[in-house]
Structures are given as C-alpha cells and as structure tokens.
Amino acid sequence: MCRITPAYLQQASNPDNEVATTYVQDYQSNVQESLCGLLQAQQHHVLCLSSNDKQTSGHFDKEVVGQQIQSMAIFETVDFMQCAYSRSQMFEVFIERYSFLVSRVGSPRSTARETTEVLY
C-alpha cells in the first residue's frame, strides 16, 4: 500500500471521520509486513562470479573465476552444507536448544522471536 496523499487531505475527504494514518505509520506497517514475509520465505543465497576482468561477453577466464571461488571460499561452503553444518532453525527450536544462554543475558521474553533477538 503506497499513500501519497497528505494526511490533511485524507481527513477532509474522509466522510466517516475515520482517523487517517500518517506516512510513518504506513512505513512501519509496510516494514512489518516485509519482515514477516522474509521470515516465512525460503532463503536462497546467490553468488555472482565475473567470467573475466575485461567485461567482455563470451570470454571465460579460468584464473579470474578460480581466484573468485578461492576468495569466497565456495568449495569450503559447499562442503559444510553437504555435511549439514549450515542450516536454519525456527525460533522455537533454537530457543529450546539454547535456552540456557537466555538466563545469562536477562529474563526470557514473551515470544521465542524476542528471546532469539536478545541472543543475537
């Protein structure tokens, strides 16, 4: 939802005298919706490699690509992922496993997400 009408015009054109939202409220609402969507989405990581230093199409330089693969530690990352070292967990599972750390940080929060944010 994108609102470009100033608040004073919204109130004047609102026949039911409902309280019009401000830009800040709309922004906060949109940010919250976006964050909720990100949490529910399946995460994918994309790495882009340059095929050469000269930015010419159709030219593949093995040395340039090899240097990029080495500097990004792509082979090591693939090995970790194949061994299942790298994975994501739901907040509840994370808290269940690492709840002993929460008492060191402070009192547990009302939701698993809030508790997880304290640990980060």
TrEMBL record:
<feature type="domain" description="Myosin motor">
    <location>
        <begin position="1"/>
        <end position="120"/>
    </location>
</feature>
<keyword id="KW-0547">Nucleotide-binding</keyword>
<feature type="region of interest" description="Actin-binding">
    <location>
        <begin position="31"/>
        <end position="53"/>
    </location>
</feature>
<dbReference type="InterPro" id="IPR036961">
    <property type="entry name" value="Kinesin_motor_dom_sf"/>
</dbReference>
<keyword id="KW-0067">ATP-binding</keyword>
<dbReference type="InterPro" id="IPR001609">
    <property type="entry name" value="Myosin_head_motor_dom-like"/>
</dbReference>
<dbReference type="GO" id="GO:0030832">
    <property type="term" value="P:regulation of actin filament length"/>
</dbReference>
<keyword id="KW-0505">Motor protein</keyword>
<keyword id="KW-0963">Cytoplasm</keyword>
<keyword id="KW-0009">Actin-binding</keyword>
<dbReference type="GO" id="GO:0042995">
    <property type="term" value="C:cell projection"/>
</dbReference>
<dbReference type="GO" id="GO:0016459">
    <property type="term" value="C:myosin complex"/>
</dbReference>
<dbReference type="GO" id="GO:0005524">
    <property type="term" value="F:ATP binding"/>
</dbReference>
<keyword id="KW-0206">Cytoskeleton</keyword>
<dbReference type="GO" id="GO:0004674">
    <property type="term" value="F:protein serine/threonine kinase activity"/>
</dbReference>
<comment type="similarity">
    <text>Belongs to the TRAFAC class myosin-kinesin ATPase superfamily. Myosin family.</text>
</comment>
<dbReference type="GO" id="GO:0003779">
    <property type="term" value="F:actin binding"/>
</dbReference>
<protein>
    <submittedName>
        <fullName>Unconventional myosin-Ia</fullName>
    </submittedName>
</protein>
<keyword id="KW-0677">Repeat</keyword>
<keyword id="KW-0518">Myosin</keyword>
<keyword id="KW-0966">Cell projection</keyword>
<dbReference type="InterPro" id="IPR052409">
    <property type="entry name" value="Myosin-III_kinase_activity"/>
</dbReference>
<dbReference type="GO" id="GO:0000146">
    <property type="term" value="F:microfilament motor activity"/>
</dbReference>
<dbReference type="Pfam" id="PF00063">
    <property type="entry name" value="Myosin_head"/>
</dbReference>
<dbReference type="InterPro" id="IPR027417">
    <property type="entry name" value="P-loop_NTPase"/>
</dbReference>
